[in-house]
């Protein structure tokens, strides 16, 4: 047999070995990703507990201080208690999203104000924990619980936002990856990102507020937050895909999804996450989206500046990466006609 025929005969075996290696590497990568995903989500969920959860107390100074000390004694480190001068200030602290609950003490008893839409799980937990703490300070007090921001009638468990964040995040990463890898030229990529963000904001708002009733408040404000959320995730994915290819997309998955969602507190509250990861996750798109969307939908926009600034920063960073890559390509090739 000639040398050429031997070479031809050897090719199938070499191709098979390469294919096997690729499959093994791919499966190995998936298993590692699975391990990280299970670890992050299970760890954040299993270690969820109140850590410096902000609440307020008002009423007679001695009773208010006694309740604050009692909460610290029975659950050390669980709460940060602010003693406020009166009932109105305590209620305002809840609706302004400064605290998760307010306890107003009086001679007639105690009124507990919660906000389910700040965090359904926290509101439920406080409704069980706080009356027991009040009983230690005022054994004969009558306790009433009022929800100042209840879940919508069509979403009584308050699951619409955290559930929607899962597909919103994944599809935004996918959109950014496709735009970054398949589009060429600044104009096409920026137009693609803008078009995706606007359509995502519109259609997700239609689904959540128009069809499912999971959001209340201003339609425009809700759509603005969702548009900015989708755009920020897609933009940073596009930028990293343009610069680093598949590795950039995997980095976005790791940071924005694996870590960002697991520790965002979207299904609970970030103060229940292991420290300091819950706080750090608020500077990532999912955590900022959860906080910002709840604020505009249920709290008249209270404390939205921070989350919106975080989303805008991620969007600008992604656009900057995209433009940087395009500039680098233009400096080493012919001018881009697109």
Description:
There is one protein chain. The protein is built from eleven helices and five strands; from the N terminus they run αβαβαββαβααααααα. The longest helix is centred in the first third of the chain and has 44 residues, at 3-46. Helix 5 packs antiparallel against helix 6 and helix 7 packs antiparallel against helix 10. The protein folds into two domains: 53-147, D-Maltodextrin-Binding Protein, domain 2; 160-329, no CATH class. Helix 2 (61-74) links the parallel strand 1 and strand 2. The N and C termini lie far apart (54 Å). A five-stranded mixed β-sheet has the order 2-1-3-4-5, with helices on both faces. It has 338 residues and is an alpha/beta fold. It has helices at 3-46, 61-74, 87-95, 120-137, 160-182, 186-211, 219-244, 246-262, 277-281, 285-298, 305-332, and strands at 53-58, 79-84, 101-106, 109-114, 142-147.
Going across the major beta sheet, what is the strand order? Answer: 2-1-3-4-5
Number of domains: 2
Determine the N-to-C terminus distance. 54 Å
Question: Which descriptor suits the 3D outline?
Answer: elongated
Range of helix content:
55-70%
Helix/strand/pairing class, anyone? alpha/beta
| Rg | 26 Å
Number of helices: 11
Beta-strand content bin: 5-15%
Order of helices and strands: HEHEHEEHEHHHHHHH
Could you tell me the mean pLDDT? 88
Number of strands: 5
Give the biggest sheet: 5 strands, mixed
* Residue runs with pLDDT of under 50 for 5 or more positions: 4-10
């Amino acid at each position: 047999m000639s040398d050429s025929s031997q070479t031809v005969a050897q090719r199938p075996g070499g191709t098979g070995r390469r294919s096997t290696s690729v499959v093994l590497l791919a499966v190995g990568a998936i298993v590692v990703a699975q391990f990280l995903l299970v670890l992050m989500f299970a760890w954040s969920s299993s270690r969820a507990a109140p850590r410096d959860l902000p609440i307020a107390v008002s009423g007679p100074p001695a009773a208010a201080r006694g309740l604050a000390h009692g909460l610290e004694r029975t659950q050390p480190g669980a709460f940060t208690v602010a003693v406020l001068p009166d009932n109105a200030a305590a209620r305002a602290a809840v609706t302004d999203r400064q605290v998760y609950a307010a306890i107003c003490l009086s001679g007639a008893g105690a009124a507990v104000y919660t906000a389910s839409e700040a965090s359904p799980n926290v509101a439920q937990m406080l409704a069980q924990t706080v009356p027991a703490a009040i009983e230690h300070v005022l054994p004969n007090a009558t306790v009433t619980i009022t929800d100042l921001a209840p879940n919508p009638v069509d979403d009584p468990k308050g699951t619409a936002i955290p559930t929607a964040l899962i597909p919103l995040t994944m599809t935004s990463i996918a959109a950014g990856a496709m735009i970054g890898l398949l589009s060429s030229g600044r104009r096409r990529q920026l137009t693609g990102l803008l078009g995706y963000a606007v359509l995502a904001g519109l259609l997700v708002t239609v689904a959540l507020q128009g069809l499912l009733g999971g959001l209340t408040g201003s339609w425009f404000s809700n759509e603005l937050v969702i548009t900015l959320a989708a755009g920020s995730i897609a933009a940073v994915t596009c930028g990293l895909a343009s610069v680093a290819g598949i590795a950039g997309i995997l980095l976005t998955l790791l940071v924005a999804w694996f870590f960002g969602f697991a520790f965002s507190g979207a299904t609970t509250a970030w103060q229940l996450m292991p420290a300091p990861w819950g706080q750090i996750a608020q500077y990532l798109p999912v955590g900022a989206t959860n906080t910002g969307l709840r604020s505009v939908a249920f709290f008249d926009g209270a404390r939205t500046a921070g989350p919106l600034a975080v989303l805008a920063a991620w969007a600008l960073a992604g656009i900057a990466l995209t433009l940087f890559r395009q500039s680098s390509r233009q400096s080493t090739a012919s001018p881009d006609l697109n």
